[in-house]
Amino acid sequence: MDTFVIEGGRRLFGRVRINGSKNAALPMLAAALLTDQTVTLRDVPGLADIKNMLRLLGELGCTRTDRTLSVDGEPHETIIQDGVVSLRSTNETLSHARYEIVRTMRASICTLGPMLARRGYARVSMPGGCAIGDRPVDLHLRGLAALGAQITLTAGDITAKAPPGGLVGTTIFLGGTFGSTVLGTANVMSAATLAKGTTIIESAACEPEVVDLANLLNAMGARISGAGSPRIIIQGVAELSGADYTVIPDRIEAGTFMMAAAMTNGDLTLDNCPMDALLAVTYCLQAAGVHVHPLGSLASTVHGLPSSNHRQRTPALTITSGSSDPSRTAENDPMRRSVRVTCDRVLRPVEVTTQPHPGFPTDLQAQLAALLCLADGNSVITERIFPDRFLHVAELSRMGAKVIRQGSTIVISGVRSLVGAPVMASDLRASAGLVLAGMAAEGTTIVNRVYHLDRGYERMEDRLRSLGAAIDRVDEKELAASEAAAA
Ligand code: EPZ
Fold first, then answer.
1. Is the confidence at residue 86, as pLDDT, over 50?
2. Are 35 and 219 in contact (CB under 8 A)?
3. CA–CA separation, 51 and 45 (whole Å)
4. Residue 182 Cα, ligand 1 centroid: separation in angstroms?
5. Residue 425 exposed, middle or buried by CB count within 10 Å (0-12, 13-18, 19+)
6. Among the atoms of ligand 1, which is closest to the Cα of residue 183?
7. For 176-190, what is each residue's pLDDT tens digit?
C-alpha cells in the first residue's frame, strides 16, 4: 500500500488544469446502458473509481468501442487514454452487478435505473457500509418503485423488475431526512427517460453533476427539463441514441486546489475551473481571507463581502452544458474559467454548514477543516449531509490541531502552525484534507492508505510536486524498511 511522504512549509506556485468531474462521469458512464448505440465521453478522469465503473459496465455487457493501446497488464476495458471513453451496450442479458465490484464503489448503484428501464430487469448488490456514515438507498428504491418496478432484496442483492410494457411515468417526491439525494436523482431521472408518459421528480438534487447527466441524456434524445432545480420533468421516449459529450470540470478538485493554495500561502492559477459551481465555496474562502479571482473578461468577485479592489457588477451567470459548444471559450464559460488564488497572510475564522447544492459541499468539509486549523480564531463547521463525517478530526489533532466535536458540529480553535506526523487516511476527502495539512505543517507528514485519495484525484502527488510541493509516493513496506535501516 502506498503512502505519501510530505515535507511541509513549501508555498505552491504555478498553474494546474482541473480534470473532468468524477461524480459527473460515474452516472454518465452508467447511462450507456440506456441505449445500444455508442456513447462517447471526453475529459473522463483516470481514477480508480472510474476504472471500477468501466470494469462493472464490461460485466454488464458494455464493450469499449474506442481503440486504446494496451497498457502493461491493464485490462482493455479500464484503459482511459486522453480522457476519452467510448462504450456500447452489446449484450443486454448480463444484468447482475456483483457484490465484489459494488463493495469497492457505491456509485455502482447508478446502473440499477438504466438497466431496469432499458432491459426491464436488473440485479445490483446492495452497497454496504461507508466510512463517512450511513448511506442507505431507500430513496433510489422509492423512486424506481413509483415508476412501477417490482423491487425485492435477496441475499444482499436488489432485484428490480419492470411491469409488462415497461416503466410508467408519475410524480415522485424524492426528498429524505437529509434533503435530496444526488445519485438517487441520477438513477430515477435516467430510468424515467424510457418510461411511458411524464415523470416529475420533486425535491430533486440540484448538483451540477445532475445537470451534466441531464444534458448528456438530452443529447441522447431524452426530454428532460428543470435539471438544476428541485423539480425535474421527464417526458418518456421510446428509445435513446448515442452521443459524444464532454464532462464538466471537477468542482471538488478545484476547491481542493484553492485550499491548497491558501494553506501554503501560495499563488495558484487553476485552468478549466467550474467557478459557476463554486459560488458557496468562493464566498466562504473570501470570508476567510482567500482571494479567488477569475481571469479574463468575465472577472468578478462574489459580492456581499469586503474584498480588495476588484468590486465590479457581476454579469448574469448560467450553468453551461458540457457538450463541446464551440461558442463557449474559457473566456466566457463560467464553468471553464481560469482563476487565480492567493491568500492574506492571516486566515480569518468562519462558520459554515454543509448543504445540498448550491450550499457548501460536504465533499470540501474535511479540506476546509484543515484550512481553518490555521485561522486566527474559532471557526465552526456543521455537517448536515453526513453527520458523522469527521474521521479526519482525530488525525488533524495528531498534527497539533485544536478541534472539539459536539455531535455533527466541530469548533476549531486556530493554531499558529501544524506539526508533521504519521496520519491515517480513512476516506477520499479526509485524505485530501490530510495532504493539505501535511503541506502546511512544519516537518514531515506521512499519509497512510493513499489509495483512498487515488479514487478521486488523478496523480495528485505529481501535480502538487509540479507546483512546488515536497511530496513523494512511497510503498509503505519500503518506507518501513528505510526507517528501520535509519534507526
Ligand atoms: C454523492 O453521493 C457523491 N458521490 C458524494 O461524494 C457526495 O458526498 C454526496 O453525493 C453528497 O453531495 C457521487 O456522486 C459518486 P446522497 P450520494 O444520496 O448520491 C441520504 C465523494 O467524496 N440518503 O446525495 O450517494 C444519505 O445518507 C463522494 O466524491 C438517504 O437517506 O449521496 C445522505 O445523508 C462521497 N437515502 C444524504 O441523503 C437514500 O436513498 C445525501 O446523500 C440516499 C441518500
1. yes
2. no
3. 9
4. 6
5. buried
6. 19
7. 998 999 999 999 999
